[in-house]
Amino acid sequence: MKSVFDIAKSARKAALKLAGESSAKKNAALRILADALERESGAIFAANAEDLAAAEKAGLSKPMLERLSIDKKKLSQIAAGVRQVAELPDPVGEVIEQTTRPNGLRICKVRVPMGVIAIIYESRPNVTIDCAALCIKSGNAAILRGGSEAFRTNSAFAKIIGNCLEAAGLDPDCVQMIPTTDRSALEELLKLDNFVNCVIPRGGEGLIRFVVGNSTIPVIKHYKGVCTVYIDKSADARAAKILSIDAKCQRPSVCNAAENLIAHKDISDTIFPEVASELAKRGVEIRASKRAMEILKKHSIPCTEADEAEFQKEYVDLIISVDIVDSLEDAVAFVNTNGSGHSDLIVTQDASAAEIFLNGVDSATVYWNASTRFTDGFEFGLGAEIGISTDKLHARGPMGLREMCSYKYKVFGNGQTRGEPAQI
Fold first, then answer.
1. Using 50, 70 and 90 to split pLDDT, how confident is the model at 64?
2. Is pLDDT at 327 greater than 80 in this prediction?
3. DSSP 254-307
């Protein structure tokens, strides 16, 4: 078994080679991988069944079990995502901008791979494939460190990836998995800044804060997904119900699911209780401010009282916090105070109100009449995403191929010197 140090060292070597590989060769590897995932589904499902059995025995929550599970539909979507990445334009070598200086120097700003990216994640084994595909296409080596609950599934995926890289004529060290769930291995990896250029943690807030607190390598992350649906006074009632249900119920265990619902006071006795009723029918536990609670009780909608801290909580479950606001400006202030800068939605028929919300909310993704559940690399046409960033330096929102690149300057001259030419 390779040590963490040796994995990082060999990843650096592989990254330097991969950076110069052709798009055709990288795309061929991805197509081989997509086919292999479908061909070797039996081994994947068997490994995943073992992980699920162990997780159930350990008492893992229902939303976490849902994240962990790989079925035929999910595997088909994963393979489709790999094929989509293969069809996307290769960002490596793309000229971002260029200029010619008065002295004749031609300066080109060109996209290049970051180098080695370490991805630290929990539960969702699909991340193994998504991140591997994006790293291969963008010319980056990947070091993968999944959670113990998905170790068998991740291992099965990693074996398939390595075989496919070799079959395509690429170095299998381009994608490596840390072969242990020991926390000390993670701590060692986070200190290997001589080899690793970037760390992307994906998982609960505890994991992400641990990575940020222990890493000497730059970290791109979001701590949590506290997303808000705001129903404006000019909202269409049907749209408010459909979008709220989708944002909260379609898949409550993910970071782009809604955790807060707020409504303008002018529709607090009409559209708001209608929406809350539809959520309650679908098993959503409603935690309400005192103001919202009075309205919901009047309409016989079950709820409990929420304290202020709950409006900043990521439930990843069928639970939502609700409140009433006096104005559009108060709604923007609510989101900027309580949200996590991830994904937020205004439901309204008023274009000017939508524009104020879209411009005023300080989040990576802001929606007008569309579910927050679309904050996703696949849905944005990026093939997949290596992560979602709420940072403001380098990358923000779903991170696709371009966000996985840095850049360099290529400078072309014909003998220009900064000072007087040397007398030779």
1. confident
2. yes
3. STTSEEEEEEEGGGTTTHHHHHHHHHHHTTPEEEE-HHHHHHHHHTT---EEPP
Token couple for 236: 């269409």
Q: What angle do CA 370, 371, 374 make, to 5 degrees?
A: 100
Tens of pLDDT, residue by residue over 93-106, are 999 999 999 999 99
- Summarised one tens digit per residue, pLDDT across range 336-362 is 999 999 999 999 999 999 999 999 999
Polymer length of the chain: 424
Instruction: Give the N- to C-terminal CA distance of the chain in Å, as an integer.
Output: 58
pLDDT tens digit sequence for 274-286: 999 999 999 999 9
Cβ-contact 37, 75 below 8 angstroms:
yes
Partners of 287 in the β-ladder = 304, 321
Amino acid letter, 319:
I
346: Cβ contacts below 8 Å, ≥ 6 apart: 230, 232, 331, 353, 354, 357, 358, 366, 367, 368, 369
Max CA-CA distance within the chain?
Answer: 93
Residue type, 361: V
Put simply, whether the predicted model's pTM sits higher than 0.90 gets the answer: no
Give the pLDDT of residue 383. 67
Contacts of residue 320, defined as CB under 8 A and 6 or more positions apart, other chains included, come to 248, 258, 259, 260, 261, 279, 284, 285, 286, 287
